[in-house]
């Protein structure tokens, strides 16, 4: 598959690296040579030129592209580049935008007629992740599939967990209501087997069904965590606005923004919501005390500065806040943030790149999530009629190393998978992939795949 990307920012760079790892034909175009230099060690062809140059797009082979992606910082550049690419022959186009109005379903045909097949708004995707995490104060990461028929929970294990230091084969057998699909221990990612054990400090990823979430909460020793009702958000950017507007009704949200003009804009944007906008610095301890930080269950730091967000979350934890979320856009800081145990880490660019990446897979992939902390992906594959995955029990499929099937959804019902499970055509199957190429896994789910 040939993919052409314009924009070597965080989204374009991360997407290019994913494609390089999958050995896809990838071309990256940007008018900033320094940004392109960061990809010198990857198998990516780069062009230092204008993203909207017809000549350059032709030279890059856009007319043969299966997917064209516009992810520069400028919305108009992305839309223009996608329209040009479509008329040159690109099969599918996707543009990054920053205008929420464009996402309205009634505008879908309008953009399609212009040659733009899909729009992506990273701040909206990040807001969804933030609110999903706030609904469960005791988890680091949550991902619901098919309206919660299956749920993936990333949980930091403390001394209070009752499932520590026991072989997993004794904890989660074929009839138990959860599977451990991955463990992050220090800098190591473990795809666990029956003899592996959970330890204090591990970040464990549980696959379960909606009804057993309270049970998971009990066995990991998190029942004493208060549910989130009061939330303080530091920083009033677009992600903050989308998160506040889509927060559950039972949550009381306050946004602290130090720019007075932005506060006025926030009051305008949030006029119909109950969100309170406060002019001030979210690092001011006096202000935090005044705004009830000690009666706040969640603190979300969404400024454009990763260091500020990390330090603010550490301060909130010291003041007694259990649930903290930090936007960390600089990937170099992610490891440090995790080592400092600040809580949930959000990177809207990797979220957006994963969303785009699923578009270029040949198999029927309806969802893809990048788990940044364990350098892995979770993909939702639909098993095609006659595909290899439907012909043998899971244990006999010969899945690539680093691959685990955590569960499936059949006719709207979520169920966990073990070695003896038989996948059927039409099943939505959750596949956890670490050090495994997705294009090798997707062949198991495609009809008449060539082996």
UniProtKB/TrEMBL annotation:
Which residues, if any, are the signal sequence?
Answer: none
Q: Keyword set for this entry?
A: Ion transport, NAD, Potassium, Potassium transport, Transport
Q: Which Gene3D superfamilies match?
A: NAD(P)-binding Rossmann-like Domain, Regulator of K+ conductance, C-terminal domain
Q: Which domain of life is it from?
A: Bacteria
The record places domain RCK C-terminal at: 140-222, 366-447
Q: Which InterPro entries match?
A: K_uptake_TrkA, NAD(P)-bd_dom_sf, RCK_C, RCK_C_sf, RCK_N, Trk_Ktr_HKT_K-transport
Record flagged with keyword Cell membrane: no
Which cellular components does GO assign to this protein? plasma membrane
What Gene Ontology terms describe what this protein does at the molecular function level? potassium ion transmembrane transporter activity
RCK N-terminal domain: residues covered: 1-120, 228-346
Q: What is this protein called?
A: Trk system potassium uptake protein TrkA
